[in-house]
């Protein structure tokens, strides 16, 4: 028997190179899968943040419209909850594992503060409506 060959006539070197190729293919596949998963999670987070902002815009506009006409409604707790959740999502954006750009994060933070201000204004407007109703009832 010649050294370097097994009983099947194959070289030990060719068998080890097949294993190396197999390990390399598995590593490349794993790396590709990790990158795809990362990109998917970033995309999903960006969609979640945008969806929350849209929900807040719709419910906030409805709440503002009711407040402008002194109609009491139950949208304030929903809007508050949505803004809180939105801000929590925004806080996750700049760090691991998402690493969104500072401009993207700042834009959404400014939007959250704007929504908070709008909600506070609407609540004040509803309080003024309550006060004016109470004074109307006093003078009747």
**Quaternary structure type:** single chain
Beta-strand residue percentage: under 5%
Gap from first CA to last CA: 117 Å
Q: What value does the Rg take, in angstroms? A: 30 Å
Largest sheet composition: none
- Count of beta strands: 0
Number of helices: 3
Helix content: over 70%
Instruction: Estimate the global geometry from the Cα principal axes.
Output: rod-shaped
Structure, described:
This protein has helices at residues 12-68, 75-92, 102-138. It has 140 residues and is mainly alpha-helical. Helix 1 packs antiparallel against helix 2 (75-92), helix 1 runs parallel beside helix 3 (102-138) and helix 2 packs antiparallel against helix 3. The chain is rod-shaped, with a radius of gyration of 30 Å. The termini are far apart.
Quick overview:
By secondary structure, this protein is mainly α. Helices cover about 80% and strands about 0% of the residues.
How are the secondary structure elements laid out?
Blueprint (H helix, E strand, L loop, with lengths): L11 H57 L6 H18 L9 H37 L2
Output the keywords.
140 residues; mainly alpha; 3 helices; 80% helix; disordered C terminus
């Amino acid at each position: 028997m010649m050294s370097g060959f097994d009983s099947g006539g194959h070289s030990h070197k060719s068998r080890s190179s097949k294993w190396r190729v197999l390990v390399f293919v598995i590593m490349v596949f794993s790396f590709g899968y990790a990158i795809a998963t990362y990109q998917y999670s970033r995309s999903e987070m960006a969609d979640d943040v945008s969806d929350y902002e849209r929900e807040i815009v719709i419910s906030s506009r409805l709440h503002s419209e009711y407040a402008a006409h002194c109609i009491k409604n139950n949208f304030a707790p929903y809007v508050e909850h949505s803004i809180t959740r939105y801000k929590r999502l925004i806080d996750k954006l700049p760090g691991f594992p998402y690493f969104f750009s500072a401009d993207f994060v700042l834009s959404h933070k400014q939007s959250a503060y704007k929504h908070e201000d709008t909600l506070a204004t609407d609540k004040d407007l509803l309080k003024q409506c309550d006060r004016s109703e109470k004074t109307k009832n006093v003078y009747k």
